[in-house]
């Protein structure tokens, strides 16, 4: 269970209020106009931005006072998820130990993670020698291997074409399902939300509204969402 | 239109100024024209009688004067060059820069006889290393200096730009001949730096940057007479001391030949010569009627005076310079 | 068929300007070559000058770059009062006249300087400043800030996602160094090293004042000595040819490594949040900051302290020289402005071709070689001494051209790409296109370029030292002459005036460009 308790996020003039709860294992889409604060919300969970007011809890533990690496969180960015000077396997290894010193067991689990995203034969390649989809899979393998309960995806795979993006999203869905992870995904594409997420949060006008079931929300959108969707 | 009017006006003004008093331009070395040097005294004294405007132009140190004149060639404003020495006169003559003065030369108080028809001497002295009188282990020869620990530093001048620098080159050559390169190699670790002029080197010494500086046996007189300070002395080297005779000459391109002659003649008169001991701190070429100032008798007297003839100096200069460069660029 | 997507403007003038640049520089080089080839035999001392030039440039570049890494890292990791000022300070030495820096460094590190006095008071021998040490030390003073800025700019180009990723994965300082900093360093350092090597390989004023005789003579200084001391034109020219060859090698090497950032412009170092590490890392950073910023700040402070009491009694000749320097700076800026925009337009329009060669040429020739060429080339017609001030202005305009073009050309390309089609579609005339679209967009770059050119010409001791004379000299020459006659107090006073004027004139131009600027 991810809980925002009276959270106020502030960056210069910009303010965002969040006050709601998301059940464990849910997949949540965060939608809204650009500049509304979608990425800000994720930054607060990841630990790159401290709440100005309020607290964030995972299950019963408060997490907003912990450093990013200690939180039960793993994050996938729009772009630049991989380090160009490291091989695919090394990039995945970073998820277990940032200094890249792995024991035999850890090495095996890196291989396993790459296998699971279908890149077992590409372990020694550097990102430059991988396609965009393959790079996304490496990043996914690293997110997976960290074994964290909460996945944060900030407009993931938006550099990929629509077909490839859909394929990657279903891979994420499948992986999350298997590991029971809770997923927060920022997207600007309502189709992605509908396809991927049980719940959707609409961020607009300084407020991240409480999550609604995605199907219900899009079936009968409130007026502001309608304006955003242009329907 | 407007600009040409202004230009015409300026030209007229310049013309009037010219008409009023002819300008005599004398190129000399930096320390000659400094506030405490002979320049101001000499200028005032000469202008009293000449009805002209005497302008000293400082053009670096002595040896750089020559290059400056060559560089400017026929465009030079200079009428007289003052401050070369006998090591440079042959080169200046060869470059066609100077013309005979045609003057009756008065009797000179030089340790050597003088026959040059273009250059006239105005003062002379001996090169020497000056140091604090309380310096422990003050050397009595080049070889003793070389034998001192490497952290005993000297400052010397560049022989290409400075007459003391060139004088040292000749000194070592005159005293050691073919052994000169070895002497330079021995001196090299003691050389704190090589300055382009005398003033900078002497300043470094006074600021305490080095234990000794290449200057003259007469330099301590400045401290003694002007500052009542007896703490400076010159090292008396057993090899003997090289002599410097500083000279002036009229330039080939001068547009004031008569005034230039008048100046050269004035140069050997009391008005100029009496200023030399206590402003340029050298021995005057003609001892003034009052004699040498009190204090000069305390100066060291070299056991032997060394001096190459202008022709000899010119002929060994390039090879000696290469030896110097080679030894010091290691 | 011409490219119709962009309004034609200034390309003809740009080609003419590039051609003029090419002719002048190649003409000067030819004049040098024609004078020097007859005696292209170099003696042992000439080889020593080449060796020393390379040695000091390698050492200066290596030390600057190595020291810049911890300094840049500490600047990224720590925040402190006057942080913005410290970052600004990193830009100052580039503008600082060389002689001012030399006097400042002497006041701190000379035998009578602060450090030596401290060392002697605890029984250590004083620092030997003259020679290699002094030359390298002064070069590091100038180039450590440049190297630091280059590295900071490199690190600021790390995508913020990667930095966040590092935080999310729990990177400490050593992992951040390994995975975030090092890949950037590998890309930036070779370029930074070579740029600093190139700058130091044409060092003249530093070697002139800090060198210790034949042992520490650079090629530029040897050219000066051959010219000024011996008036041996052919030897000066032969040395000039060696200098050009050395620069050409360095320029070619620079072309082979990834381009370094240019080191100019604002730096928002607060943007990058690298792991801050623990107590030890913090203590280490504070020590690095104190030493590094102190090293840059103290010489400048010493000029203020030493020079201030003597400013009011400076002789009139110094103020006349200052006036001459200001005139030279303004003429230099005018020449630069006339050349820069047409050439930049041409470079922006055509991605390759001979104008690019012409524009890069000033990097490969040193000011003294250019001055020597001008002297030899002009002598048959006019007295070079009578045009030494205009020549100084011209040489400095040419020398700053590559820097100015570096900021103008990308901006022009952007303007063309963003508005070119639109302007053609609107049927905008050439003059309106320049007046309404291009010039407003270039104000900032022009202002900065003008400031840089003005500062460089104000502080220049190159051509003017070669055949200028005291009665028509600039302020730097006057300061050099004061140093030569060991009037160090007056020299410090004059240096303070020079520093103040230089920074002021830079500030005025740079501000002028930014004031009310569209972009």
Total of DSSP H or I helical runs spanning 4+ residues of chain C: 21
The SS-based structural class of chain C is mainly alpha
Low-pLDDT residue intervals, each spanning 5 or more residues of chain B:
1-18
Q: Could you tell me how far the N terminus lies from the C terminus of chain C, measured between alpha carbons in angstroms?
A: 33 Å
- CATH homologous superfamily caption of chain C: MetI-like
Name of the level-1 CATH class of chain C: Mainly Alpha
Multimeric organization: heterotrimer
Overall mean pLDDT score of chain C?
87
User: Helix fraction of chain B?
Assistant: 40-55%
Strand content of chain B: 15-25%
How big a fraction of the residues of chain C is strand? under 5%
Q: Bin the helical content of chain C.
A: over 70%
Characterize the biggest β-sheet of chain C: none
Fourth-level CATH superfamily of the largest domain in chain B: Periplasmic binding protein-like II
Please describe the structure with a list of short key phrases separated by commas or semicolons.
heterotrimer, A: 231 residues, alpha/beta, Rossmann fold, 2 domains, twelve-stranded mixed beta sheet, 23% strand, B: 330 residues, D-Maltodextrin-Binding Protein, domain 2, 20% strand, globular
Explain what you see.
The complex is a heterotrimer of chains A (231), B (330) and C (519). Chain A has 231 residues and is α/β, with parallel strands linked by helices. Chain A folds into 2 domains: 2-72 and 150-229, 3-Layer(aba) Sandwich (Rossmann fold); 84-147. Chain A contains 8 helices and 12 strands. In chain A, strand 1 and strand 2 (14-18) form a beta hairpin. The mean pLDDT of chain A is 90. Chain B is α/β, with parallel strands linked by helices. Chain B folds into 2 domains: 11-124 and 244-293, Periplasmic binding protein-like II (D-Maltodextrin-Binding Protein, domain 2); 125-243 and 297-328, D-Maltodextrin-Binding Protein, domain 2 (3-Layer(aba) Sandwich). Chain B has helices at residues 2-20, 30-33, 39-50, 62-72, 89-94, 142-147, 163-176, 180-187, 198-206, 219-227, 257-267, 270-273, 276-279, 310-328; strands at residues 23-28, 53-58, 80-85, 98-99, 120-132, 154-157, 191-195, 212-216, 232-234, 241-251, 283-284, 305-306. In chain B, strands 1, 2, 3, 4, 5, 6, 7, 8, 9, 10, 11 and 12 form a 12-stranded mixed beta sheet that branches. The radius of gyration of chain B is 21 Å and the shape is globular. Mean pLDDT of chain B is 90; it is low at 1-18. Chain C has 519 residues and is mainly α. Chain C has one domain (11-37, 44-514): MetI-like fold (Orthogonal Bundle). Helices cover 76% and strands 0% of the residues of chain C. Chain C is built from 21 helices and no strands. In chain C, helix 2 (44-77) packs across helix 7 and helix 16 (367-378) packs across helix 17 (388-426). Chain B binds chain C through residues 30-31, 34, 57-60, 63-64, 66-68, 70-73, 75, 151, 156, 158, 160-161, 188, 191-197, 199-200, 202-204, 206-209, 322, 324-326, 328-330, and chain C through 43-45, 48-49, 52, 110-112, 125, 128, 130-131, 211-215, 217, 225, 227-231, 379, 383, 385-386, 467, 469-471, 481, 483-486, 488.
